[in-house]
Design brief:
Length: 289
């Protein structure tokens, strides 16, 4: 039998947000207390499920971006950098990350801040925070028309892998808001519904915990046509799954519409894992008890 509307309604509910806002503000206060070099400009903002209103009960770590804005990283060749008058920065991402780490340890204590692979892990008085220390990124089209003709993202260096990671959390958020509006406010509840359905199967050992990470799942659903988000959650669940099982994943973009969702990089999902997730959803729908 299909999953009851009442169960899907429960799964569509948003988790608590107050402590996430308090966590964000706590990080902001910790950084503001630091004695920064005069030329440094930065901003602190939420990303991830708490920012995008797709958090569910049980989500814990709050994703916070600390972004250096007095310096930027870009995708231009050397000749165009010179043409646009860009110069090498004296204060770079490496110095900024070191200062952010010091600021957080000064505020919370050395034992409550540790270095992770991609982020700083901070134990605040509220929720744990994953603090991504980044630099503003400018993505220029080819050919660029002017130095102001770029898409803003953020970038950070993964030391253990010797590479830059580039993402676009602000655009991800803006596109999610637009998608939610175009679907009569059904998109974000649908994301939460599928996240909770996934967690239900993970808790019962049906699928592995890493099969469908929340970011990939949200991006997958972003590619579903707006008219598949129906008047009730049962029809939405069914129509979304039916459409996705026949879709061409090679054309899917992340919610930021700047990066392909599927591929071989560490920041992309595999088509095989996505199909395994969908088949698990089909079985859950058909065999609900």
């Amino acid at each position: 039998m299909p999953i009851p509307e009442s169960q899907l309604e429960t799964w569509s509910h948003q988790g608590a947000v107050t402590t996430a806002k308090q966590t964000h503000e706590s990080i902001r206060v910790a950084l503001k207390a630091y004695d920064w070099p005069k030329e440094v400009r930065y901003e602190v903002y939420l990303q991830g499920s708490y920012k995008n209103d797709t958090n569910i009960r049980g989500d814990s770590d709050v994703d916070v971006v600390v972004q250096l804005n007095s310096t930027f990283f870009e995708n231009l060749p050397v000749n165009l950098k010179r043409q646009f008058g860009f110069r090498d920065a004296s204060y770079r991402w490496e110095e900024f990350r070191s200062d952010v780490l010091t600021a957080l340890r000064n505020h919370y204590g050395p034992g409550r801040v540790r270095e992770g692979r991609k982020s700083l892990k901070v134990q605040t008085p509220y929720l744990p925070a994953d603090v991504v220390v980044s630099v503003q990124y400018h993505k220029y089209p080819e050919p660029p028309r002017s130095k102001d003709n770029f898409v803003e993202g953020m970038a950070f260096w993964v030391r253990s892998e010797g590479r830059w990671v580039i993402n676009y959390p602000k655009i991800h958020y803006e596109n999610g808001v637009k998608k939610n509006d175009k679907t009569n406010k059904r998109y974000k509840p649908t994301v939460r519904m599928f996240k909770n359905a996934r967690t239900y199967l993970v808790d019962r050992g049906v699928i592995p915990a890493d099969l469908a990470p929340s970011y990939f799942l949200e991006c997958l659903l972003y590619n579903v046509p707006d008219d598949k988000f129906g008047p009730n959650l049962q029809s939405t669940f069914r129509e979304v799954i039916v459409w996705l099982r026949e879709a061409d994943f090679s054309r899917f973009f992340c919610q930021n519409e700047q990066l392909l969702l599927f591929g071989s990089s560490p920041e992309q999902w595999s088509e095989d894992r996505a199909h395994r997730f969908l088949e698990a959803m089909v079985t859950l729908w058909n065999d609900w008890r």
